[in-house]
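>> received
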Amino acid sequence: MKLAISSSDGKFDTQFSARFGRCDYFIFIDTETRAWEAKPNPAAGARGGAGPQAVQFLTSNGVEATITGRYGPNAFSAIQAAGIQAFEADSGTPEELLDKFLAGELKQVNASTGPSLHH
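>> returned
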């Protein structure tokens, strides 16, 4: 399965980013091999609609599940429409979150987990 975790610096061993649509990077992980790569989030600087744009980016990269700190309503609607599983975390590095994901220790969310935030 291909998993995406929001990140502020694109590193596997530093604290993940609680932001979804406007995170600076996504860490893409193959859950079977643990191979990973970081890619800049093209929606990070969007004037509006960052969540749905981030979901389009994840979809184009074959993502089946994502982990972040909060999902706004527009982002979550796009996630549902794309058929991506959404998981929520409070803290951890992408490496730690991968372990928790594989162990079934993360909460899967079925609705947005925060208000829409526009900058």
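>> Strands lie at 2-7, 25-30, 36-40, 65-68, 85-88, 107-108.
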